[in-house]
Amino acid sequence: MIALDHHLSGQHFLQIPGPSPVPDRILRALSLPTIDHRGPEFARLGRKVVDGLQQVFRTRHPVVIYPASGTGAWEAALVNTLSGGDAVLMFETGHFATLWQKMAVRLGLQPEFVSVPGTDAATGLPAGWRGGVQADLIEQRLRRDPQHRIKAVCVVHNETSTGVTSDIAAVRRAIDAAAHPALLMVDTISGLACADYRHDEWGIDVSISGAQKGLMLPPGISFNALSPKALAAAKGATLPRSYWAWDEIVAMNQGGYWPYTPNTNLLYGLSEALDMLLEQGLPAVFARHQRWAEGVRSAVRAWGLPIQCADAGAYSPVLTGVVTPQGVDADALRQLIHRRFDLSLGTGLGKVLGRMFRIGHLGHSNDLTLVAAVAGVEMGLQLHGVPLAGSGTRAAMDFFAAHPAPAALRAAA
Ligand SMILES: *Cc1c(COP(=O)(O)O)cnc(C)c1O
Fold first, then answer.
1. Which end of the chain is more exposed for a tag (fewer CB within 10 A), N or C?
2. What is the structure's pLDDT at 9?
3. End residue of a domain, out of 259, 279, 299
4. Angle (nearest 5°) at CA 18 between 14 and 20
5. How far is the CA of 390 from the centre of ligand 1 (A)?
6. Sequence-ordered strand ranges (E) for 46-95
7. Same domain, 245 and 364
8. Per-residue pLDDT, 411
9. Ligand 1 within 6 A of 156 CB?
10. How far is it between the farthest Cα atoms of the chain?
């Protein structure tokens, strides 16, 4: 065992927006014996997880599982569908959108990065990092592309660096309004199984997701959900691909197998996670995240600190970005809280490093873990000398007490 010297006793508070805390039920499933990945038991597991993922993505079309982090699935989406020099339209919602855009450059694509210019006066943060995708800007740009040079529109559903969730159905409508044939690719690495997501209904061609956020697994597997149009594009696309190529994986998945050794034990965990999510029903899972998010936001409002997402219609159910006052180093604060209270928070990434921290409220959590997390943040803010308008812990307690979870109401009936 490596020495985890912060974890002296009790449970570590992993309140980063992924990896999220892993339920015991999943940890136990991960410890099952590794089996023959060409044997008959494996085929049942393989078919079950693909079928379950289709339900979570809300698709009837193929879902591909990679033994890779989410970044690998980003690459897979691009290399399977595009050719060198292709123009792609991407939208700067935050750090993850920026990383995906950099990847597109490295792969020899020509991404055009739509950014909302300027700095937000109230916080000094980049204006575009306080809101979501503006579908009208995408529509305007596509209307100015009569030759259809743009081959794909790539957007992030839940921008994990800012705590903003974008309206993907609106992006689909924008592409349709411009009558443009570009593929729609959506990163829902942190959105899936936390926020409503509908691959088929929203006309998404490639959805990209990962294990360690809403699916509550340890990191290490990631997904592409496909559309018939994406599969057709793959036939003509010429970017080099081999390990990421969909064709062989999709063909072998029909029997429940993979062309190479899959991550067997993580697939046990995935099977368990899918059981948990589908037993509860996705609407209940989404409602739970919305409620937790509102509880945490009530704390941030009570402290008198800005929520990074400036658009109440785009608040993320997955995490909340908290902006610190000018001159307060949010990352030093985050480190203090980790040191003193064994509580991990997300750091500010990229352009907002030092200006904000992130509280994850996803996956395996409950009212009391969130009240405790908020209390840890509040103690840290006070120790760091940040002036507070009031007690966020009190506000979160009041919110959760006044808004019982539907399951608690059913139990009382
Ligand atoms: C976590 C995350 C990624 C990166 O996934 P990795 O598993 O770290 O490679 C990309 N996009 C979003 C929105 C994320 O939340």
1. N
2. 84
3. 279
4. 50
5. 34
6. 63-66, 87-91
7. no
8. 73
9. yes
10. 62
Q: Let me know whether 240 and 108 are in one domain.
A: yes
Q: Is 265 in the pocket of ligand 1 (CB under 6 A)?
A: no
Domain ranges, residue 325 = 13-21+281-412
**Is residue 251 located within the same domain as residue 109?**
yes
Residue with CA nearest ligand 1 atom 2: 189
DSSP string over 232-258: HHHHH--S--STT-HHHHHHHHTTT--
* CA–CA distance, 54 with 223 (Å, rounded to integer): 11
From ligand 1's centre to the CA of 282, what distance in Å?
Answer: 21
Question: For the segment 369-383, what is each residue's pLDDT rounded down to a tens digit?
Answer: 999 999 999 999 999
Atom of ligand 1 nearest to the CA of 160: 15
Chain segment 30-84, per-residue pLDDT in tens = 999 999 999 999 999 999 999 999 999 999 999 999 999 999 999 999 999 999 9
Is 268 within the bounds of a domain? yes
What the block records as the tokens of 96 is: 């993850």
- Which pLDDT score, from 0 to 100, does residue 116 have? 95
Q: Look at residue 212 and tell me if it is in a domain.
A: yes
Question: CA-CA distance, 149 to 320, in Å (whole number)?
Answer: 37
Confirm whether 1 is domain-assigned: no
List, run by run, the mean pLDDT of 10-residue segments along the chain (413 residues): 67 95 97 97 97 98 97 98 98 98 98 96 95 98 98 98 98 98 98 98 98 98 98 98 97 94 97 97 96 98 98 98 97 98 97 97 95 98 98 98 85 73
Residue where a domain terminates, one of 230, 252, 279: 279
Top mutation candidate among 78, 100, 189, 190 for ligand 1, by most atoms within 8 Å of CB:
189
Helix (H, G, I), strand (E, B) or coil at 91: strand
Question: The domain spanning residue 377 has which CATH number?
Answer: 3.90.1150.10
Instruction: Give me the number of domains the chain comprises.
Output: 2
On whether residue 404 sits in a domain, the answer given is yes
For a ligand 1 pocket test, name from 16, 96, 213 the mutation site with the most ligand atoms within 8 angstroms of its C-beta.
96
The helix/strand/coil state of 127 is helix
Ligand 1: which atom is nearest the Cα of residue 159?
Answer: 13
